[in-house]
Amino acid sequence: MAERLAKDLHGRIKIEDAGFDWKILGPDVHDREFVAYTCDQDAYACSGQKCSAQSMLFAHRNWVKAGLFDDLKARAATRRLDDLTIGPVMTWTTEAMKAHIAELLKVPGAKLLFGGASASLPARVPFRCAVAVSGCCVGSLRPRRR
Which of 65, 68, 89, 98 could crosslink 139 through cysteines, CB 3.0-4.6 Å? Predict the structure, then answer.
């Protein structure tokens, strides 16, 4: 991608991912189950609180047609606080995360794929569950419908 941009823009670009750890899937669909597993692990392992956490996923429409986003939604729905397959995001409030999501949704073509509802947890749980939104792990929201 960087090489193509450099060529198309005659070298007038700077490429920096700023630690966002993008994943870009081109038009060739193969190993969908493995790709879904990898995206899920990259986004949610350690509750997305690791330097290598996948923050953005750009997928060609062929992946969408093949069902990748449905696979990601199904995998996210299996993560639970009680078995620690998901955990808290302690650095953002729910309000800040919702405001961030609202800003992300202003980007042309962006959509909320799943999650987004505030988590409702028992009083004994001092925090809320982390969740993925538009392929990003951004915080204190419910990852699946209850």
Answer: 89
